[in-house]
Amino acid sequence: MYGGLPNNYNPRPEGHMKEPTFLERYLAWLKRMDDIRRPLASFPCPHCSIKLKTIIPDRVDIHDSAKVCPFCLAQFTCITNKSGEVNTILHHEGEKAEA
Ligand SMILES: [Zn+2]
After folding, report:
1. Using CB atoms within 10 A as the burial measure, which of 42, 43, 49, 69 is most buried?
2. With b meaning 16 or more CB within 10 Å and e meaning fewer, what string describes 31-62?
3. Could you tell me the distance, in angstroms and rounded to a whole number, from the CA of residue 65 to the centre of ligand 1?
4. In the sheet where 62-68 sits, what is the strand order?
5. Residue 14's pLDDT is what?
């Protein structure tokens, strides 16, 4: 048989499944927002210019949040106002999150 591997060797032990990627999490989030018909604002990623979506604030005038682009993994701050206008501030160039 396979010398070296213990008998109970399991390449994918329970609880150590692969973490979902930023893209998988983003797509799941988009679907959830679509399910509850939450209005979203579109804006281009400040790094790769791909169209992304974010929540339009309904209880506060301005909502800001730290985001990671699910496509290029650039980190930026996203500032959205009640009318759905989005401003982004790209964090340090080259500083990428781990996928
Ligand atoms: Zn991007």
Report:
1. 69
2. eeeeeeeeebbebebbbeeeebbbbbeeeeee
3. 16
4. 62-68, 75-81, 86-90
5. 62
Q: How far is the CA of 36 from the centre of ligand 1 (A)?
A: 26
In the structure, ligand 1 is a single-atom ion and the residues with CB under 5 Å from it are 45, 47-48, 69, 71-72, 74
Tell me which residue has tokens 């730290």. 66
- DSSP-assigned states of every residue in 47-92: TT--EEEEEPPSSSSEEEEEEE-TTT-BEEEEEEETT--EEEEE-S
| Ligand 1 center to 55 CA (angstroms) | 17
pLDDT, one tens digit for every residue, the chain (99 residues): 556 666 666 666 566 668 899 999 999 999 999 999 999 999 999 999 999 999 999 899 999 999 999 999 999 999 999 999 999 999 976 555 665
